């Protein structure tokens, strides 16, 4: 097929048809593809000349197809047009219905406006009707309303006479009359009922007063107590149509019971002063169990079971006592006696068989599960205060004892002796006794306080020994052996019971050992002062030729050691051992520091013999002192020559 035929077969776009512009690139591309496909189809069919004869057939076929499509399109469009027509017709009917409804509503609105105007014209009539009803109600109640003032006065008289049940019945009749007038009068309060509020309050106060004196009334006038409780219970179930707050007399009654107990037993705290706290606690020890017994035997039968009177009594007394003790602790610092009394009472007496733990009290009186009277912080504070006060007293007292003992040491006469002839002073026994007593007293409170006081006692004893050592060093210069009286270490066993950890007494024992060594040193210094002139002559020709020089040393040593007969073991053994060591060392020091020239073998032999004799003489001296100590207890000691 030539190009001219192809151009004739190419479809053309009729004028006025919508051709997509550049703003619709997808549509333009689709048309190009469709045109290309049509050209390709036409080219394929009419490529050979013999097929041109069939062109008319193809044309008629396409005309039929086009007519079929146009018929289908017309059918669809016709169907859509019929639906639109139906919808338009229905919308017209709805519009007519809306207009009818609007007109009906407008007519109803007009009718309602007219009725409102008519109702306003009837408002005065309505008010007249209400007033008429109120006047009719007042006319019916007028005889009873005239009696209200007299009934109020009568009720007040019953309250003053403590006829509480009758007063409550009269009050309720008046309140019921008030309710009957309140509704018909539309909530209008009549002046005649103004006295009911104060009257009800007066009755409530009377109920509270009776409940506050429950313990006394249970013994003297139980009927009054029962009446007060019944009034409170009956009023708890009262209902009213009036706009009034509930009176809640039951709770007021319970509070009055508690406040009455607090006022009786804890109204005033003990004043600061010696023994005041102990007397107050002792009074509570007697009063509180008696109060609980009264509650169980007398008060509980007068009250409903749900009051749980005994439990209420026990809890109230416990909480009030706890609050009072906290107030006491906020005061300035307590003394040692008051601190001990408070600790021992709160920790042992209060829950003990003498008070709240008594077998005579029922299980409802048990307060062991409540908060303790003293918290751990309170106990810690009181124990620290007690230890500090006791320590100050012990320090002051020990200083007085030491001053008195120092005055005894300063006397010119010989110290006191016991029946065995030993020097004796009551000071060690007194010191240890007072310390032991303080520890024993602390053990009555708690183990922690006992441990604290024990530690304080050891500390004070160590300080006491140090102060005693200082005084000894001054006094022994003039008194010689006056201090060597007894051995104190054996008495320390009272300060080391089984519960004390091993080694707790080590500081005190060390102080005692140091004191004993200082005493020995001072005593031996006095001995050396006496022997110094004799040792100054060693060695010499006189010493070499005669034993008189060493005999003088032995004589003075023996005379000096005679005073040791008043000293107990093992202190005397230490003194003798140290005396022997001191004399021998001083003898050897004098020989080593001196100068003696032997002129020949005879003098050297004589010097060796003198040394041997001196050694034997010194050995005999101290062996004799030991034998005499054990044989005759230093009574009538003779000098060993």
UniProtKB/TrEMBL annotation:
Residues 1-26 are annotated as: Disordered. Pfam families: Sec6. GO terms for molecular function: SNARE binding. InterPro entries: EXOC3/Sec6, EXOC3/Sec6_C. One of its GO terms (cellular component) is exocyst. Transmembrane segments: none annotated. GO terms for biological process: exocyst localization; exocytosis. PANTHER family: EXOCYST COMPLEX COMPONENT 3-LIKE PROTEIN (PTHR21292:SF12), EXOCYST COMPLEX COMPONENT SEC6-RELATED (PTHR21292). Belongs to the SEC6 family. This is Exocyst complex component 3-like protein isoform X2. The gene is EXOC3L1.
